[in-house]
Design a protein that fits this description.
Structural class: mainly alpha
CATH topology of one domain: CHAD domain
CATH class of one domain: Mainly Alpha
Order of helices and strands: HHHHHHHH
Helix content: 55-70%
Strand content: under 5%
């Protein structure tokens, strides 16, 4: 038990018999708050740094960025300018699209959990076929990069549905899945070219900007630039390979697109969608028949 004097001291200052008094906070620079004679420093400031006690010393911000930091900042600015307008695919998140850039799948209405598998599967396949064909008029334009990509995603969704339901529909679903896979792979090759071409153009633009900066810095102090100075451009030998790569990708993309148009027009002329749905109707199991088991 504390004495009456100890209890009063604890209530007033939080100190009592046997307790040490609290210290005033020191400056972060390590200087003492009082001089050797026990007197407080002038106006409550640290004797070493002159800052108010309890605060961190002030650091000068001017001049911290050196020549190397300025060079990195300039390189980043050139990179942003080079990539600006490069047409990188999927950079925008438009309405009705997922974050990755692909369009959302159409909702399948009228599904009945209590209905047979083949009935629901035919309904899903019908929606996926209509979704795939909806991109065709616009996708026949070679400049419609995003539409071609959306059509590839639609072909992949159709393929997955047919592969899952192939145990119920048999060869009809397997053949349809194979056709959808061929279309998906062809559109995927076109998409790879559409992704690479803007990157090659942006890299060429970045190298060109670096050469311009180098030649201007080398000509500092002169009124004109000699044609011989072009030999000192650091990226002069890299353009040839990049321009060749750009020509190759452009030619390959054109060939693949022509092949896609021919194959799609052949599918439409054959009536691929109606043919597939009719085959699935013929392959539907009879009432009371045992469902087919999935292969191991």
């Amino acid at each position: 038990m504390l004495s009456e004097e100890g209890a009063q001291a604890c209530a007033q200052g939080g100190e009592g018999p046997g307790r040490r008094s609290r210290r005033a906070p020191r400056s972060r620079c390590g200087g003492r708050g009082a001089d050797e004679g026990g007197q407080e420093a002038h106006e409550g400031r640290c004797r070493r740094c002159g800052e108010p006690r309890g605060r961190a010393p002030r650091r000068a911000r001017e001049g911290q960025r050196g020549a190397r930091g300025s060079a990195r900042a300039g390189a980043r600015d050139r990179t942003r300018r080079a990539l600006d307008g490069a047409g990188r695919f999927g950079s925008q998140n438009r309405r009705g699209r997922r974050r990755g850039g692909s369009v959302k799948a159409r909702r399948v209405k009228g599904l009945d959990p209590g209905a047979p598998l083949d009935e629901n599967a035919r309904r899903i396949v019908g929606v996926r076929l209509a979704e795939l064909r909806s991109f065709a008029p616009k996708a026949l334009d070679p400049s419609e990069v995003e539409t071609l990509h959306d059509m590839r995603i639609a072909a992949k969704r159709l393929r997955y549905v047919l592969e899952i339901t192939s145990p119920a529909f048999g060869p009809a679903a397997e053949e349809g899945a194979g056709t959808a896979k061929e279309l998906q792979d062809l559109l995927g090759e076109i998409h790879d070219c559409d992704v690479m071409l803007p990157r090659v153009r942006a890299h060429v633009k970045l190298l060109r900007a670096g050469d311009i900066d180098h030649l201007r810095a080398a000509a500092e102090g002169v009124e004109d630039l000699s044609p011989k100075a072009a030999r000192s451009a650091p990226n002069r030998l890299r353009y040839r390979g990049l321009e060749t790569l750009h020509a190759y990708l452009s030619a390959r993309r054109a060939l693949l697109f022509d092949r896609f148009v021919n194959e799609w027009e052949a599918l439409e002329a054959r009536g691929f969608a109606a043919e597939l749905l009719a085959a699935l109707n013929r392959a539907a199991p009879e009432p009371g028949a045992q469902p087919a088991e999935a292969p191991l």
